[in-house]
Amino acid sequence: MGPRSRSQGESRARDGREGEAGFSGRLPKDEVQYYEEIDKQLSKLEDGEEQRLLADNAFEQAGTQLIEATGDGVVSRVLEKLMPHASTQALIDMLTALTSGENLAAVCTGAPFPSHVAEKILILLQSRARAGEAPEQIEQALYSTTESVCGDLQAVITTRHGSFLSRRLLSVLVGRDVTSGPSAKAAPGPSVAGGGSDAAAPEVEEEKGEEAAPKRRKTVGGLASKLERGSDTSAAASAGEVDHPEALQGLLASLLTDDFAVEAAALCRNTFAAPFLQSLLWACKDNEEATTQLVSCLLGGTMLNVTPDQLQQMMQDKVASHVIEVIYQVVPDEAFQKLSTTGFKGAMVHLASHAFANFSVQAALSSVRRPAQLKRMFQDLRPHLAQLLRARRGGVVAALLAGARRLGTLEADAAAATWAAAGALGGEHAGPVPALLSLDRPVPLARLGPSAGTRGKSGLSPLGTALLIQLLQLPVEASGQWADALAALPPAQLRLVAGDAGGCRVVETYLRAVQKSGKKVKAMLAALRGGWAFAAQGGSGAKFVQTCFDLADMDEKLAIAEELLKGRQALVSTHHGPRLLASCHVDTLRRGREAWMQRVATASVARQQFADIFA
């Protein structure tokens, strides 16, 4: 659930124009003008007490026709601007009114603005409670709001705006953003009015879901996030205590019923209910008993009776599969063993190849707890890794490698199996490393010339580079042949790799892996000469060049700085360029090499002294 933006219709309504997009004209024109005057008056006031009185009066006036006022695009925006100045009691009163009785149904099913107002109030109340302002009042208000939502929870979470509101309420009750798992940032802004986001979507290859459904972007970002999350499924991933445990327990109690278990399968497949269920699973992650009860309820009442067909059908559903992904990441160890055996036994390869189920396989691999579990999965997948790479299911291979690295088992076997699979791709690829760099790409690495395109369009595979990073992070006995093959690429190809957003991370990972071998570092840096300025034009590339500069000896540092000086005009106009130029002392180099060397030597001594003091 990312930042929530107002639609074009709302923008038109904000201008006060009538009859457009249905967002304006909910209030008579003279009443809209009244709120616009309040907005103008607010900008003139400097005294906090006067601002509070103005805001409270506006909230009281809006309360006389609440749904109409908050449903108007112009008025709702004015109310949102007034919220930071309103008293806590005024905010509580409006939240209570919006979530009571028939108003709640109107908030969930009407225009997006009332739910947006309610979400904004929830966020402000959370902030004020943490600041120690009226904590008991806010606690009671949140409990009452939760009771109202739970009064008809299924109806609320199966509507677009009700789903957003319930997820925001859940995040406030827990005290952190539970819409994206434990790696998410706390205290998120209001969510997007017109769509959803997947609570744990491992985005790699496929878009999944309809316009209003959770979507997987065609990037490797979601996979990277999940692999990082999977790197610690124990205490380090724990999110801590719940801010409002009683209200959360009441919400859970309203769900953990026999009636809900009967409807759970349909809710898991509902575009709007599924994201809420994912958020609820993340919210319960640190409570094994609650997690087990919730998962049992979602699977029809008990995990003991769940069948392979039932679980596999959910994995292959474009919406329910998101819920299964989170289940595999949050369930306790005993339940994970039961569900992984039930879900994958005899069907691992089919599910790993499926457009939607492959993400559940990735989630399970990235969360596997025991070496024996990983070994069984690896044995099922090993003969089919090349098939998965060809079928654009490389995310499964990446998750397998991450699981092996996290558990410290099967690392050499997994790396060797991936080597054989990448080598079996054939075509114009000149080996496993070029095959992964060009994975799913129409043009192989060998045919990409120095003018393959601007930075970020060099034709390298984001998924392939993610796989190589995983491989190069393995112990040397597992990663050795991959590292040697990368270093053996022709300099022109290495420069092309370094000029790619994902490729530069591959080279950086290699350099960090071999940094104790000065000879290998020097050879790689020498091969990259002529491409430093091009590589530095992006954010990840600038960081990569900085890393290379830090690892280089004086001669290589000078070579890097001289190339950056030649490309200075292009770099100063980029976001990260000026900082990189300063870090490499490029301006000093304009005064001569001797002055530059003296400056670099002085900076190196100062940096070492700093490290010695604060190491």
What does this 3D model show about the protein?
The protein has 615 residues and is mostly helical. Among the domains are: 8-193; 430-528, no CATH class; 532-615, no CATH class. It has 38 helices and no strands. Helix 9 runs parallel beside helix 13 and helix 17 (308-315) crosses helix 19 (333-344). Residues 5-25, 183-219, 231-239 and 452-456 have low confidence and may be disordered.
Radius of gyration: 28 Å
Mind describing the biggest β-sheet? none
Task: Give the overall silhouette.
Answer: globular
Proportion in helices: 55-70%
Protein name: Nucleolar protein 9
Keywords: Repeat
Pfam families: PUF_NOP9
GO molecular function: RNA binding
What would you say about this model in short?
The protein has about 625 residues and is mostly helical. The protein has helices spanning about 10-15, 30-45, 50-65, 65-70, 75-80, 90-100, 100-110, 110-130, 135-150, 155, 160-175, 220-230, 245-255, 260-270, 275-285, 290-300, 310-315, 320-330, 335-345, 350-355, 355-365, 370-380, 385-390, 395-405, 410-425, 430-435, 460-470, 475-485, 490-500, 505-515, 520-525, 530-535, 540-550, 555-565, 570, 575-585, 585-590, 595-615.
Spell out the blueprint of helices and strands.
Elements: H1 8-14, H2 29-44, H3 48-63, H4 66-70, H5 73-82, H6 88-98, H7 101-109, H8 112-130, H9 135-151, H10 153-157, H11 160-174, H12 221-230, H13 245-255, H14 258-268, H15 273-283, H16 288-298, H17 308-315, H18 320-330, H19 333-344, H20 348-353, H21 357-367, H22 371-381, H23 385-390, H24 394-407, H25 411-423, H26 432-437, H27 462-472, H28 476-487, H29 491-498, H30 503-513, H31 518-527, H32 532-535, H33 539-551, H34 554-566, H35 568-571, H36 577-583, H37 586-589, H38 593-614
